[in-house]
Each structure stands twice: as C-alpha cells, then as structure tokens.
Amino acid sequence: MFRYALNLIKYISFLCFTLSSEAKEVKVVTEYLAPYQVNNADNSLGGLSTEIVQAIFKQANKTPNIIALPWARAYETASSEKNVMIYSIAQTKERLERFHWIGSLINEKLYFWGLKSQFPEAIDDLNQLKKFIVASARHSNVAHYLKRNNFKHNYKLVKEDQNILMLFKGRAELIIATELTLKHNAKKLNLAFDELIKIKEFTDLNSDLNLAMNLQSDPKLVAEFQRAYTEIKAQGVINAIYKKWGITEL
C-alpha cells in the first residue's frame, strides 16, 4: 500500500511537471529584418522567417514568446540564457559550436552594394574593397567576417536595416546585404533602390539563415523542436510559406 501511494505521488508529480513544461512559453529573440522579420501594421511581428518559426512551434505544441531586439542584444541574450531561441541567424563556422541548430529557414545570397554614383562598375578584387567604409550590425556574421579579414574601415550599426540609410547619407561607402532585404528596406525608407549597384557577390558568407537555441538548453526541448522542423518541412509547410512570399524553394 505504501509503495502504491509512493508511486502514485511520483506519477502525479511527473504529470504536473510535464503539463507545466508543455504550457510554459519559450523565449525567442530576433531583430527586424525585412522580409524575414517585419513589424505589421497592428504592431505584431510577421515576416517569412517568423511564419516558419510559428509553424514549428505549432507542430511542437509550444507557445513562442517572440521579442524583437537590436541584433547585438538578441545575440547576447541567446548566447547567455538557457532555453532561449534566436532567428534568423546565419550558421557560420564561428557559431557552429555555440548553439544548437534547429533548422534552416532560408538560404541567402549576400552582395557588396554601393551607390552607382560612386561605383560605376563592379569590383572583383576583394582587397580593393578594404579601403572603403563598410557598414554592418554589431555581432552580425558580416561584422565578424570583416574583422577576421582585416577590413579596417567599419561603421558599426545597432540595427541591420540602418545600413542602406547610412549609404545614402554618405556615412558608409559599402554595405553587405541580400537583394530581397535591400528592396524591402529601400521601399520602407522611401529610398531609390535603382541607385544601388551590386559590386561583388559575398560568396564567403552565403549561408543558411537558421533557427537556433542556446547551447545550455534542455536537450529534450531541442530535440522536440528539431523533430517539429523536420515534420513541417516534409509536409510542405515551409515551401508553402516560400510561395506565399514569392520565393521559389531553395
């Protein structure tokens, strides 16, 4: 009888813990970066990547508490707080062992961009570009690359979507971004995208934008989200979101 009562107490405790764990929100940090993460008219967070993340959470029967922050704060939060997720984060060599990787959200192709008035034609020699001022967000994969490859003239930004503005204001001579992002930001800021030129493809940093988790996160929770990602991808959910945003499957 005593053993039965003890087992019953253990079962109830386990059940309460499980229900509490399932009901608990998971903190997710990101930045505003169109079209991946955008501020909707009603101030809710939307965007291509956000929709994929929401689909993953729905499949995992979890609730996301998504907070939009400047990228440097988002990165530091996800690096230091257990069970915190971050997106859309590039999966680089430097970051590979710093996070648990849930799954790819989209592949991006990055380019050096400048104003046509300053750069009438493309430049293929990377060393030539090192003499120009390059704007990038702190703690971004671009900023890490520039530092590692001895780009001395860097303009550090708090928010990634400020880069095109710095270009038009003359505070930077080069920026690095995808065409899709720049078109969205140019439209939002009422700037002329046609005045920009692709100077060189940034092949060293072409990578997958991912959903990742803090390295100290609960392994079971990580596995749940990895499984949910695999399931929605197999179901065609991710491809459907691409098509909604006018992007073919990559």
From TrEMBL:
Sequence ranges assigned to domain Solute-binding protein family 3/N-terminal in this UniProt record: 25-249
InterPro entries associated with the record: Solute-binding_3/MltF_N (IPR001638)
SUPFAM superfamilies linked to this entry: Periplasmic binding protein-like II
Protein name, per record: ABC transporter substrate-binding protein
Pfam families: SBP_bac_3 (PF00497)
Biological source species: Thalassotalea castellviae
